[in-house]
Amino acid sequence: MADFIYLASQSPRRRQLLEQLGVRHELLLPDVDEDAEALEVVKPGEAPAAYVQRVTQLKLDAALARLRRRGLPVAPVLCSDTTVALGRRIYGKPADEADARRMLWELAGGVGITTAQGRGRTHRVLTAVAVGTARKRQAALSDSRVRFAVMSRAQIAAYVASGEPMGKAGAYAVQGRAAAYIEHLSGSYSGIMGLPMFETVGLLRAFRFTL
């Protein structure tokens, strides 16, 4: 068995978390002609948990095919996907700044959409992770809860203007400036970042990694 894994993700946060675990890894990124974004299209009526797990498996399929095509040394491949959900509504990466402002207004709560206690709304952050080879796959799901404080339109606009929300599910990064507005969270902090470490370690142990 190889002593390293391939990480099929461009996320610097996932690289950081693997480094924190001391897991040796190499990047296995899509070719220029691969339409990686097409894998993240939501099916009509799809539940958030089913969606994030399906997308992660599709990413693993694509990464394993990429590994074979490139003739690289054989090693387990790790894929992960994160989505934010409010009820059954899925919040992916914002299309632009206006979309990011809309997402945050709905997640953090604005006039007319706050809870009875005057707090922001609580949403779920779901991160699926899968490790696989041509012959074996293991997968896990992390399900966390995050509650924002109520944010004003000016606060949301300032945060979006920082550029941090772009490319992030739900238009925020828990490890960044958004932390100033998070009143409460429960579950996996690393899962909210994009790679649940407890679940990831369990998967890697199934592939005989000592952690």
Automatic annotation (TrEMBL):
Its EC number is 3.6.1.9. GO terms for cellular component: cytoplasm. It catalyses: UTP + H2O = UMP + diphosphate + H(+); dTTP + H2O = dTMP + diphosphate + H(+). Transmembrane segments: none annotated. The record marks R13, T82, Q175 as: Important for substrate specificity. The active site is at D81. Keywords: Cytoplasm, Hydrolase, Nucleotide metabolism. It is an enzyme of class 3 (hydrolase). GO terms for biological process: nucleotide metabolic process. It is found in: Cytoplasm. The keyword Cytoplasm applies. Its cofactor is a divalent metal cation. The keyword tRNA processing does not apply. Gene3D superfamilies: 3.90.950.10. Its main location: cytoplasm. GO terms for molecular function: dTTP diphosphatase activity; UTP diphosphatase activity. Pfam families: Maf (PF02545). Belongs to the Maf family. YhdE subfamily. PANTHER family: BIFUNCTIONAL DTTP/UTP PYROPHOSPHATASE/METHYLTRANSFERASE PROTEIN-RELATED, BIFUNCTIONAL DTTP_UTP PYROPHOSPHATASE_METHYLTRANSFERASE PROTEIN-RELATED. Nucleoside triphosphate pyrophosphatase that hydrolyzes dTTP and UTP. May have a dual role in cell division arrest and in preventing the incorporation of modified nucleotides into cellular nucleic acids. This is dTTP/UTP pyrophosphatase. The lineage of its organism: Bacteria, Pseudomonadati, Pseudomonadota, Betaproteobacteria, Burkholderiales.
